[in-house]
Amino acid sequence: LAQASFERNSDLSIGCLGPLFLHLHPFAMPWVWKGAPKGFGKGWGYGKGWGKGYGGGGKSKPQAVPDDFVADPAKVYEGTVTTYYKFQGYGFITPDTPGTVPGDKVFVFWKSIKTEDRYPSLAKDTKVQFNLAVVEKQGVKTVQAENVCAPGGGMIAVQDESDQKKSFVGGQSLRYTGKLKFFLPKQGFGYIKIDPGYQYEVEGVPEEIRVEAAEMNCGGGNPAYAADVQVEFGIWVTTRGAFKAYNVTLPGGKTLPAMESLPTTGVQGMPATA
Predict the structure, then answer these.
(1) Please, what sign has the CA dihedral across residues 221, 227, 229, 231?
(2) Which residues of 179-205 are buried (b: 16+ CB within 10 A; e: fewer)?
């Protein structure tokens, strides 16, 4: 396993390695968290940002189906993902057989995706298998996809292809530790303060790095609000040279709590469910 080397401004003893006399290079902080704005905490929680309308906006009415439309929940359909809004958590599938649903377009919500990826998502033009369910949303009778998986019943897997395009600091398997200062589900990002003492193979790694929702590893779920949580993670570099957190987990590689799986007793730094 790759191991990160350490450096500190003062003497540091690790096991029998003896004191290390290394110096951190100064760098500019691109952004500093100065606390939540007034009124924060009301409406920013872990269950309000999803499921109203198509994604987080909630302003578009769902596609209505005729009153006599009936879907067999046991029947398996196949189709192609035509659109998926990753950070809004929804998209659309076009069934292979025209006339399967009115408009030949089926809504799919992230909770219906069967995946072992860190973050539930679908890629455009991907072939999928699914069931249909008639539901009511915003007073409209509509149809949506359920049990969305790969043809034949396999799990959806899109993250590996994305990971192959990333450039990592120290390699993909190297893990760093730090504190997740906050993560805002509705905004889809947070910031991590890296524990002091790391020596990097590249210059410019800041003390605090941004983490996007897609890198919050909830075992296929959507991440909940969190603050002051100890985590471990990798670091990757965007094509524009920005350093961001990769595959963020709890210490030991344990997955972070997802919105729908928070225990009623609460987790350190995370609100208990009502």
Answers:
(1) positive
(2) bbbbbbbeebbbbbbbeebbbbeeeeb
Assign 163 to helix, strand or coil. Answer: helix
**DSSP character at residue 271:** P
Distance of CA 71 to the CA centre of its chain: 31
Positive or negative torsion for Cα 257, 258, 263, 266: positive
How far is it, in rounded angstroms, from Cα 27 to Cα 269? Answer: 29
Identify the CA nearest to 217 among candidates 248, 189, 241, 239: 248
Mean pLDDT of the chain: 79
Nearest to 100 by CA among 114, 121, 80: 80
Q: What is the pLDDT of residues 164-210, one digit of tens each?
A: 999 999 999 999 999 999 999 999 999 999 999 999 999 999 999 99
* The CA-based dihedral angle spanning residues 183, 185, 186, 190, taken in that order and rounded to the nearest 10 degrees: 20
Largest separation between any pair of C-alpha atoms in the chain: 77
For residue 18, what are the contacts with CB-CB under 8 A and spacing of at least 6? none
Would you give the DSSP letter of residue 102? G
